[in-house]
Amino acid sequence: MTAPVRVVRLRDWADPVPPARREVLTATPETPAPDKPPLLFVPGFGHGAWVFAEHWLEHAAERGFAAHAVSPRGHGGSDPAPRATLRAYAHDVVQAAAVLPRQAVLVGHGAGALVVAHALARYPARAGVLCAPVFGGWPTLGLALRRNPFGTLPAAFGGAVRLHRRQLFSRELPDEVARAHTARLGRASARAQWQLLRGRPPEHPVGDPPILVVGSPDDRVVPRAALDRVARRYGGAPLLFPGMGHDLMLDARWREPVDAILDWLEKGDH
Amino acid sequence: MSPSTDSDRFDPSTTLWRDGRPVYDRRDTVCVVGAGASGLAAVKNLREHGFGVDCYERETGVGGAWNWRHDRSPVYAGTHLISSRPLTEFPDFPMPDDWPDYPHHSQLLSYLERYADHFDLRPHVWFGTEVVRVEPADGASWDVTTRSAGGGGSERTHRYLAVVVANGHNWAPKMPSYDGLDEFRGRTMHASSYKDAKELRGRKVLVVGGGNTGCDIAVEAASAAARCWHSTRRGYWYLPKYLLGRPTDQVNDRLLAARLPLRARQWLAARTLRLTVGDQTRFGLPAPDHRVYETHPLTNSQLIYHLGHGTITPVPDVRRFHRTTVELTDGREIDPDLVVFATGYLPRFEFLAPDLLDADEHGRPTLYLHAFPRQHPTLAVAGLLQPDSGLFPLVHWQTVLIARWLRLRDRDVTRAAAFWSRASAEAGRRYGRARVKDSTRHWFEVSHVDYLRALQRALDELTPATAGSAR
């Protein structure tokens, strides 16, 4: 279960997250639909807003949604932040959401889904979507160590997690494309990586937004059991896209999950 | 987008009658009085909990006191926040993090306007409409009579499930009375009508009142006026806006986070002030007659600075006015040609019968959590608080509590009854360490942490029944 929302937030008041310049990429629909909420995509650790700019932003805009992607500090084109915490990442998401003209839908991927879960406790989103959510904990580390020991171990000493392209993409994605994407990956701060293991659980979302969990049973970063666990936390079951890798928005069949998310948003009148 | 005509929204077939006048039944809709910060938070949080809302606002825009265009707005050109940004913003809609620590009032207004647009609140607000009467009706519902704010036009009455009163408490000036004030030939004004330092230029100004407004205006007069006297009744602690390199309220909350007891915090604050500001009596100010944090904090970095420059002359209380001079309690006479009374405001609820809010002989309501009157579970007051932080975080959770309470009443009668019997027993409790002074204002001062902890307990009590079922 999620923890109840805290009302007394001495830490946030006494020690506010310092400002940072944030990269926000945007795709605007040609004919804006007033009934469709703006979307804010949040990339996972090491990823930047660019991962959504490849396909998903344009696609969402074609379907009438104003689509934005924010790089949390230290990621993509945002200011470097080697000592950033999960709290700072969630702050960046809430800040990016609050400047949008209307109440936004937050869509987080990977560890970005955990960042979104924390942001949902600080911003009453229209809806929340958690794609291949990495909510952390020791089992995640165990799996990562088994799948990719040399990419994972350095993180224990403050180094970067190096994800292998076969963890991130299915074999349908041409090798050179997968290599090019993997080469663009950066890293999250060491503190945030540790918080992924031992951070406090996200508080309950404010305003009780509907939450959708999306993933792939063939994801080599997030096991099926973890998907179910996150979905259960929000009282639902995950929407599954077999045969896809962890990076749903870059993989060969990127269209299916984003269409499913947009269908869910349209159908649910969120 | 505002609805074009009344008939779009009000179904005439549901008309009831009261004293021979028609009453339009709005059924499960909640009425919010005022579209200032507290009213907007109430509209947003009631909507979030699934209620229909009609909000009545006598002005033509949102923002209430923070909208300088409003004739009841107390802000003047140089108004800046006195609590820092993180302690002032709504907890679920932060101000931009590149704004200054203490934003200007125009930024506050743009923030409230963005809040209204972001959460699409304007369609629920009836602008230019003022509330004339709020009267209890059948089955705990309320009849709200409104008319267009110009004074013309006919009155209309609607019946509501509940009423949230958010009409603000910084608009009805509290004017002091002095002997001889009538015969005084100089100009006198209340701080509420002070708008710009231009009005002080070249004048000999006496500012009466040691509150935050009084200090701010004294500082403006120090630069603009020919002469400035600042009259205060007692000694206060003047906290600078920055202490130890951080906004002062953030330093205090850091000590609170470290779980330092009040006495230790008071000692540390007094010590730090002693080391940085020094002995206040050197500047001619009376020594504080209370400990730090015991009354609403005065946050002003420039007052001491101007006292040190001699551009503000501190004087004691006024004894009486003469034709051209003002006599002080120490016998001195001064000759100001402009007197600004920064003597505060009084909460007023002219549209409510005083007994509805359990008002005592001084007109002070007796409320649970400064929000709920004991006898009327579907009436609530939002934002009647004077916290040692910004108001918005408190009023946000207060209106969430009001919404959850109305939901629970609707869903679970037994739990609602249990909550209410506990709540009504706590009516009138105070949430802070402010010593009860003989003042019409101190009674609603709260410590933000004490008050929010009490709100958290009440929220937790109401939560299980609403979680997951609100949609």
Task: Summarize the model shown.
The complex is a heterodimer of chains A (270) and B (471). With 270 residues, chain A is of the alpha/beta class.
What is the distance, rounded to the nearest whole angstrom, between the alpha carbons of the first and last residues of chain B?
Answer: 25 Å
Helix content of chain B: 25-40%
Q: Percent of residues of chain B in beta strands?
A: 15-25%
The averaged pLDDT of chain A comes out at 93
Q: Strand order within the widest sheet of chain A?
A: 1-3-2-4-5-6-7
Question: How would you explain this protein's 3D organization?
Answer:
The complex is a heterodimer of chains A (270) and B (471). With 270 residues, chain A is an alpha/beta fold. Chain A is 37% helix and 11% strand. Chain A has helices spanning 10-14, 50-53, 56-62, 86-98, 111-120, 138-147, 149-152, 165-168, 175-183, 190-198, 224-233, 255-268; strands at 23-27, 39-42, 67-71, 105-109, 127-131, 211-215, 239-240. A seven-stranded mixed β-sheet of chain A has the order 1-3-2-4-5-6-7, with helices on both faces. In chain A, strand 6, helix 11 (224-233) and strand 7 (239-240) form a beta-alpha-beta unit. The longest helix of chain A has 14 residues, at 255-268. The model of chain A has no long low-confidence stretch (mean pLDDT 93). With 471 residues, chain B is α/β, with parallel strands linked by helices. Chain B has nine helices and 26 strands. In chain B, the strands form eight sheets. A five-stranded mixed β-sheet of chain B has the order 1-2-8-7-6, with no helix packed on it. Chain B has a five-stranded parallel β-sheet with strand order 5-4-3-9-24, covered by helices on one side. In chain B, helix 7 packs across helix 8 and helix 7 runs parallel beside helix 9 (448-466). Chains A and B meet through helix 1 and helix 4 of A and helix 4 and helix 9 of B.
